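About this split. The held-out portion is used to measure sequence recovery: a designer receives only the structure tokens and must propose an amino acid at every position. Recovery is the fraction of positions where the proposal matches the reference. Here is one held-out target exactly as it appears in the evaluation file.
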């Protein structure tokens, strides 16, 4: 609910936002159109600028297929 509210504060709606009740519980962000993805990118950029840092976003490890 906090994530949904925070996104709504930026005018962003992820229709498929939900929760997986597995262990550990996961947040399901789901699909969105490109306009929503761009709005999310801007909101995250604004938040990073407001926090005074340019931290690199966390990225999942890439699997290597050699």
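Reference sequence for scoring:
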């Amino acid at each position: 609910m906090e994530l949904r509210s925070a996104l709504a504060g930026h005018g962003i709606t992820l229709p498929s936002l939900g929760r997986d009740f597995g262990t550990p519980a996961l947040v399901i962000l789901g699909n969105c159109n490109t306009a929503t993805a761009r709005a999310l990118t801007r909101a995250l950029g604004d938040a990073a600028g407001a926090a005074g840092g340019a931290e690199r976003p966390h990225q999942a490890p890439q699997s290597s297929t050699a």
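Annotator remark: Residues 54-59, 61-66 have pLDDT under 50 and may be disordered.
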